Amino acid sequence: MKIMVAVKRVIDYAVKIRVKPDKSGVETANVKMSMNPFCEIALEEALRLREAGHASEVLVVSMGGAQCSDTLRTALAMGADRAIHVSTSHSLFPLTVAKLLQALATSEKPNILLLGKQAIDDDANQTGQMVAGLLQWPQGTFASKVQMDKEAVGSVTVEREVDGGLETVKLQLPAVITTDLRLNQPRYATLPNIMKAKKKTITQITPEQLGVQITSDLEILEVFEPPKRKAGVIVASVDELLDKLKNEAHVI
Amino acid sequence: MWRRSKHACLRATQFAKLLFSPHLADSSYLHISTGLHLPALLSADVQSTCDAGESTGIRIVSGVYMNWKRPLNQQFWKHWQRGLATSPGATKVFRDPRFAKLEESDVQHFQEIVGDKGVIVDSSELEVANTDWMNKYHGQSQLLLRPQTTQQVAEILKFCNSRCLAVVPQGGNTGLVGGSVPVFDEIILNLGAMKSILSFDEVSGILVCEAGCILENLDTFVGTKGFTMPLDLGAKGSCQIGGNVSTNAGGLRLLRYGSLHGNVLGLEVVLANGTVVDMLGTLRKDNTGYDLKQLFIGGEGTLGVVTKVSILTPPKLASTNVAFLACEDYESCQNALKEAKKQLGEILSAFEFIDRPALDMALCHLEGTRDPLPSKHNFYLLVETTGSNEAHDKEKLDAFLEAGMELGYFVDGTVAQDSTQAGSFWEIREGISEALVKAGAVYKYDLSVPIKSFYRIVEDLRAQLGNAAVVVAYGHLGDGNVHLNVSAPKYDEQLLAKIEPFVYEWTAACKGSVSAEHGLGFMKPHALHYSKSEEAIHLMEGFKKLLDPKGILNPYKVLPACAATSTCFVSV
Lengths: 252, 572
Hints:
heterodimer; A: alpha/beta; Rossmann fold; nine-stranded mixed beta sheet; two-stranded antiparallel sheet; 7 helices; B: alpha+beta; seven-stranded antiparallel beta sheet; five-stranded antiparallel beta sheet; flavoprotein (chain B); FAD (chain B); Oxid_FAD_bind_N (chain B); oxidoreductase (chain B)
C-alpha cells in the first residue's frame, strides 16, 4: 500500500509575524521557515503506518518555489521514501493545490492521502476537503486517531475531533485523512537519516506536466494587523456599566 | 527529652548572660534548615574554635558548651548555629554583635524615604525574600525595602551605615550560593522596583537600564530592535541585570559573546556610605583612569549596590541551528569540540555537555520533555550556531556533522527542524537545574577545570560516593566549566563530608576554579583559598575595608574573613 503525504513550507511557528509596509502580505524575507506543524503530524502518521506494516512506501509532495526542497529534505530525513516537488512560482491557493494533488493522486495511485488539517499561515482548512471532493474519495478530517485493521483490509477507521466531542468514521480506501494536533508527536530527524536523505531522490515536476492550469481564483486585497487592544475603562457602578453596554458598545 | 533540653537551654542562657555580652543570650538567631548531624559538628567545632587566633566572646561560649558533655539536641542548638552548607570544620557563623538591631524608629525612617509601598513587613512576603531559589538557605530578615530610585538607595544606605544596620542587596534571588538572602536579620534591599529602560542606541546596540530589569524582558525589548542580550541563562525569566552584573553571570552564550567584564560598558553604583558613583559610560573605549567598574562586576554586592547598567548588545542574527548529538565516551566529546571550533568557526554560539544521568534527571522531573534520540547513550552535546546567512550556516553545519559522523565522534544525533524542536532541546539543558531541585537535596559544584580532566572528576567522585548519591554532570564544555551536582534524597552531613573537601582539593590540584560562574556567596568563602593565593585574598580584603569599612553590605559572604565575622572589621 502506498501513502502520499502533502507538506507545506510556512513561516516558523515561533516567529513573530510582521506585516509588510505596503500591506500586500506578510514579511517573509530573511524569516525562518519550516514545515507546517500539522503536515509534520501527517508525515509522522504515515511513517508509523509504514512501520506497523500497513504500507510499503511513503511518498511526500510539496509545491512552490525552489526552497521547497528544504522542507522535502526534512521529510526525507524523517523517513519518507521519496519526494516530489511541484515546481512553480505562482502563488497557490487551496483549490489549485487540490487540483494538483488530484492529478498526482491519479498518476501515483496512493491508497491514503494524508494532509495536515490546515496551514498555519492561511488557516484555510480547505485543501483536504477539496481534493477528496475532486477525487470522489471518502474523507476523515481533524483526525485524532487513525487505525488500520489487518483483518479489515481496504478500510481505515478514523476518530475525528468535532465540536461535540469525538466522532468515529470508517472509510473505504482510497481515502483522504487530514490530521489534527493530538494525533501524534512527530519524531526528530536523526543524523544517520539526515545523511541518507541527501541521497534520496526529489522528482521535479511542473503543473503543465500534470495538466493543471494555475488560475488565481482568489486575490489578496489587503493584509493588516488586528487593531491594538484599547485600554479598558473602569466604571463606577452597575448602572453605568449597563448604560455603556447599551449605548456605547451596543451589545444589549 | 524536650523538657530536659529546655532546661539546658535556660541554664545555658543564664550562664552566658553572666559571663558575656547581652547579645549572645538573645534568641533572635537563625535556625538551621535540615539534616544537621550534631555530634559530627560538635567535635569538629571544638577544633576550629580552639584554633581560632583571636577569641572573642562568641567563640569561647561555644568552647564552654563542649565541656558540658550534656546531650544537647537540635532544638537547643538551632537558636545558635547555622552550618548547613559549610563543610565540617569550617567556622560556624554567628551574628556579628556590631550590627544594630532593627527598631521601630528605623522602619519609620525608611517609610519616609521610600514611602509605604517600599517598606514590606508582611511575613509571607518576607518568607519568600528570605529563602533562596534552592530552598537551602533561610534568612530571618524582618524588613524588605523596595526603593524606586537611586537617590532612595543612597539615602537608605547612608542611614544604615550610620546606624550600622546590615543590608543584603537582592535582585531576582536566583543565585545558587546563598548570596542573595540574609544570613541573620540583615535588611533586604530589593531592587526589583527599579525596572526602567533608560535608553537604547540602535546603531551601536548600547542599552542603558536600571538594575531591577529582568533579563528576559530586556532580551525581548532589544529583540524588537534587532539585537540580543549578550548573556543567556536558565534563570532569565526571573533574574535581574543588576544581579547578573554583581555576580558576573556566565551562561550559555559566553562562548560566543564573552563575559560581562567585556560587555558592560558602565555602571552606577551606590557605596555603603550612600555615595553615588556614576560610572555609567556608554563608550566602547575609554582609557581614562582605573577601570573601577570591574571591581563591582562580580563583587556580589559586597563592595557596592549596582543601580544602573550600561551594556553592549550584539545584533540578533537570523539563522540559528541547534543540534543534539550523542557520544559514547568523553574523548569523543573533546574531539567533537575541536572539530566544531574548526568547522563552525565564527558561527558557533553554544557548546553544552550533558551526561546520561543528567538527561535522565531532566526527562524524569520536567513535564513535557522527551528523549530526542531513540536509544540511550552515555554523553550528549548540544551545539548551536548563530549566523546571518541560513544557507551558509547550514552548509557549515552539514560539513561538521558529516565529518563528525565519519570520524566516529558522535554515534547519533538530531538537528532541530524548526524552532519548536530547538526550544525542546534547550528546555532539557536549561531545566536540569530545576529537575535536580525537584528530585530532592542537591549539592552543587561549579568548577572550571582543564577540558581534558572535565569528566575525570565526575568518575572519581562517583567512585568515592558509591551508592550513597547520584552524581550528575553537565555544563559549558566549550568554556571548560562543569556543573557537578550530587543528588540525594535529603541533605546529609556525612554525605557532605565525603564530597568536600575532596572536590575542592581535586580542583585545586589541577589549578582550576572552585566557582566558575556561581560566585562564592555564603556557600564557598571557605573554599576561596583553593583557587586564589593568600596575597590575592589579602588584597581583596583591603578593597572591602576601603569601600565598606563597617562591613554592612552583604556580610558573612564572599571573603573568608567576612564569613568568620569577627575578624573582618576594624573597630566601629
